[in-house]
Amino acid sequence: MLKQILMSALGWTLAGSVLAGSLGSQSAVWMRIPVDARSSAMADSLSAATDDTGALGINPAGLALIKKPAMAFSHSFWAQDLTLEHAAYGDSLGGVGFAVGGSYFNFGSVDQFTVGPGGPVANGAFTPQAMAFSAGGGFEISKGLSGGAAANWLGQNISNAWDSAFSANLGLLYQNESGFSAGAALLNAGQMLAGFSLPLQCSLGAAYRLPLAGVSPDLTDHSATLCGQWDYLPESSLSSLNFGGEYWYHQLIALRAGYRFSAYGSTEGLHGLTAGAGFKLSGFELSYALVTLGSLGNSNQVSLSLQL
Known about the structure:
The protein is mainly β. The chain has helices at 2-20, 37-41, 55-58; strands at 70-77, 83-93, 96-106, 110-116, 119-126, 129-142, 145-157, 162-175, 180-190, 201-210, 223-233, 238-249, 253-262, 271-281, 284-293, 298-307. The longest helix has 19 residues, at 2-20.
């Protein structure tokens, strides 16, 4: 029954993408901000290498790889006083991995003005906010091939009034025993929000887990993963090419880095470079990510995940 429901969701997601493809300007671009430090540190290149609750917004097919109860929390200090809080829970039921999660975005304080006879007059301040709640599942279609879908509720309060919309994510993920994986995802397909279309995104990615144990017997408990991903935004015809890497030392300490080659406008200073680290112990993993955004500043993100 669960697989039938998910297959129906895949079809509705495809239908939503066709509708969204004909719309104009975008809303809710904050949905493209990564919600976990691992993804941020690897330049958002994990469409073929996601296997936890973060798959909800990256590639829902990765939810099929969840086998045990897990929780995740993250806090982000994004550019221009924007902060992001995220929490998620995942588990497996009847051969289907599933997750639910929620995010809260605070865009900082914005001064308000009214126009009087003598010109603009200060009229207090306003704090734009946004929220997103997601639920989805992933399952094995055939050996090595998984599919998944997620439904999202989005809400934003930009001008003292809340607007909301629904969207869906769709994903496929292939993995083989040699360590190669490939993923495809369609994200943010759905209704208009506040009169504008959502930031529809198509992603194609590949990843390779390096067989370090074959290099030296001393590296049997070490691992390294290289990832690449191409993102395309149909509404704006913009695209980006993202690369990331991760190395685990004794499955205890992780080092991560990445770079995003994008055409999202010009900005001065260092931008596109990402880096981070993780520490894992007894089912707990604490991760940190730094994202350079040029003249907009840098983002710092902290995530905590645990397997129950």
